[in-house]
């Protein structure tokens, strides 16, 4: 059961694995059974419930919640006007419900605040409305936050981690690596253990987790994904926030969904629809991106019924700078190199909906966007991962992350984490691999090397040299002396010595790297030129 909290905000929202949270602010929270039961009912749909009796602490917490998360605020009428005036414009405040202790109270002041969704003098009636509204949001999807990335093919190809194009490609590669990794038999147990800890005081969700543990099979992945439960809520937020730890545990589930979509893949052309509420900034970005590539970094739920999608959209509450948009998406199954999509009606938890689910990471071209009767219409068409504008940079970045790879997607995931700047997670993941791999496994050497890179980045130079020495020892046993990865390791050792100010050792290591590359590639090769550029001059 949730209790009155005086916790600091940083401790609170870091543990929220869902997008939505409930905040209940009341100066004197009643401990009657009616309130306790209300809290239990609310947590069936929104697990994260924080109760405050201190206005200042409550406001501090709400301001510290990430702007892309969504707070549903329940507040008493005695505190409502002053508090709502101060916090109404915060983007993380999604909707507000007021509990009014006196039905004679004049609440005319509420009319000027768009986010106020309901007012009630009865706790149970207020809870009923919140649960109904939240269930509707889950079913029509228009209020979900869609993680969208844009690739601008008209600009110079970016080969860095920054900018729209860089983020687009990193998201694609992250999804690619996760789906290529072989699931382990322990994955489901690890995921459910993590979920049990998060939902430890939520008996309703714990029962569903236990059911999942007992009954889940891979060909029922779509049924479980479309059910309103921890799986849908946690996976979607993890994809949006790129929560590496959680996505790693979900990879077996994502692979199962992919396999089901491939099995159910549509064989004819479809036009599907998705209503969505987006911010003005997001709309402005789309309006300037006609002709460009768009990736939806989540599983995209769409409808075959345009009128239904528009009705869902028109029923959504609009406040602040939010805008309504309808995505009209053309799906051509004859294109090579597209991710799967399927009518999942027969496999869904809800068997009366004409739902077409599009695979995570699918890429679309934005054909045009215009406004019709107060609703923005964005016409998109699915396109191939092998499109001429995308393929060169996609291949470049894949090769870049496979620089020291043994060919295993398990290890390449560690490289990707490092390249994304997720140094702690890269270190954690590589140490996990070391504990699982046999002593003669080919992934050990590149794993040591990646740990050396992480330690070097963190300024732990002696630790970095120890890891590189282990990598070199393993490479000397498993590779030829002139193998490029041996040169790369010597080069990395040289960089660490150079950072430590030991120019003599740095020069010696760079010379070894140069010698290997000259022997392997000849004097004119780019890698040889890079060695000359990186090596310090002899004094």
In CATH, the architecture of the largest domain is Alpha-Beta Complex
Beta content comes to 15-25%
CATH class of the largest domain: Alpha Beta
What topology, given as strand order, has the largest sheet?
Answer: 6-8-13-14-10-7
**Helical content class:** 40-55%
Mean pLDDT over all positions:
86
CATH superfamily annotation of the largest domain: Toxin ADP-ribosyltransferase, Chain A, domain 1
Number of strands: 14
| Distance between the first and last residues' Cα | 70 Å
Could you describe the largest sheet, including whether it forms a barrel?
Answer: 6 strands, mixed
Calculate Rg over CA atoms.
27 Å
Overall form: globular
EC number: 2.4.2.31
Keywords: Glycosyltransferase, NAD, NADP, Nucleotidyltransferase, Repeat, TPR repeat, Transferase
Family: Belongs to the Arg-specific ADP-ribosyltransferase family.
Enzyme class: transferase
